[in-house]
Amino acid sequence: MKRRCAWLAAALATPRQVVWVGKGVSAESCPKSLITAQSTAWLEEHEVWRRLGSPELNGLTARQVEAFLLLEGELLKELNHGQA
User: In which domain, by residue range, is 25 found?
Assistant: First the structure.
């Protein structure tokens, strides 16, 4: 219960504390337990979108566009700080 995994109700009943930190982001529960099937799908779709040369966004839903833009921004931050 040290990492306060979100799928364990008993873990979330423990006192809040930071269990993960990275590049200005922190979490009070294990980040892995917060990844949903939809967020995994967006990561996979984003990778395909990039490999196809970032085709137009017209065929995507607003949520996909928002996810892709967020992922692009985070990728650029990683690349600009020498960590990929």
Answer: 1-34
Please indicate, yes or no, whether the overall pTM of this predicted structure exceeds 0.90: no
Dump pLDDT digits (tens) for 25-82: 777 777 676 678 888 898 999 999 999 888 888 888 999 999 999 999 988 888 887 6
What are the phi and psi torsion angles at 71 (to 5°)? -65, -40
User: How many domains is the chain partitioned into structurally?
Assistant: 2
Residues 27, 41, single domain; the answer is no
CA–CA dist 16, 67 (Å, integer): 28
